Amino acid sequence: MILFFTDFGWLGPYIGQMHTAVVGYANTIPIVDLMHDAPAQDPKAAAYLLAALAPAMPAECVCVGVVDPGVGTDRDAIVLRTGNRFFVGPDNGLFSLTARHSDAVRWYRIVWRPETLSASFHGRDLFAPIAARIAARTTPGQEARCPASASWMDGLVTEISGPAVSPEWADDIDEVIYIDSFGNCILGRRAMTVDQHASIHVPGETLGAARTFGDAPEGSAFWYANSMGMVEIAVNKGNAAERFGLKIGTPVQVH
């Protein structure tokens, strides 16, 4: 299975081209669009979000991560392997938190290049084909250019000790990393690191915890441990981002 995690947005021609690139190499591999509204051009915020999503990814999956403001520059292209999961994308810190919270971590540099490589769309031309070849490594019935009997590493990647870009980002950060369509704001903090009686200070208000939306009075704001195990700020039947002026990167205080 191949999963796509990008900041491309759900509209436009980009997602379809990524799918097409995969099918050209492995036409029987399931494709899942995990997320295409990751924090735009923000590898740091996206790294916390991806790390929260990674534990639920199926075994043997390949996740293509593209939040890549440095596309076309001299930034490297890499593969992260965590046990039996793979992550393919730019060497810009996007996979750093996922690696830190995983076991059996191995890193690879992508050495393969297609005949034509766009300066602005490595997701289609480089990352998707590599992901397809990895995903098809033990799958019978693939085309001759991606034989099941060949090692997926041959001519594609070389193992390295670690990525060139390894940011010293904290394990948890008290700032907004994602805002959903309801205006709920996910923080870069794992809920297991916060006491259930803790308060979160946002502009103009101090929020207590609730188990879920229905446990809070209508119109009231609260924080809760969301389904991904992250701290999230919400308003029952309201929009927390608008109410408190929160944006991606806005800091809050957890006490």
From TrEMBL:
Residues 2-139 form the S-adenosyl-l-methionine hydroxide adenosyltransferase N-terminal domain. It comes from the Bacteria. The keyword S-adenosyl-L-methionine applies. InterPro entries: SAM_HAT_C, SAM_HAT_N, SAM_OH_AdoTrfase, SAM_OH_AdoTrfase_C_sf, SAM_OH_AdoTrfase_N_sf. Keywords: S-adenosyl-L-methionine. Residues 175-253 form the S-adenosyl-l-methionine hydroxide adenosyltransferase C-terminal domain. Belongs to the SAM hydrolase / SAM-dependent halogenase family. PANTHER family: CHLORINASE MJ1651. This is SAM-dependent chlorinase/fluorinase. The lineage of its organism: Bacteria, Pseudomonadati, Pseudomonadota, Alphaproteobacteria, Rhodospirillales.
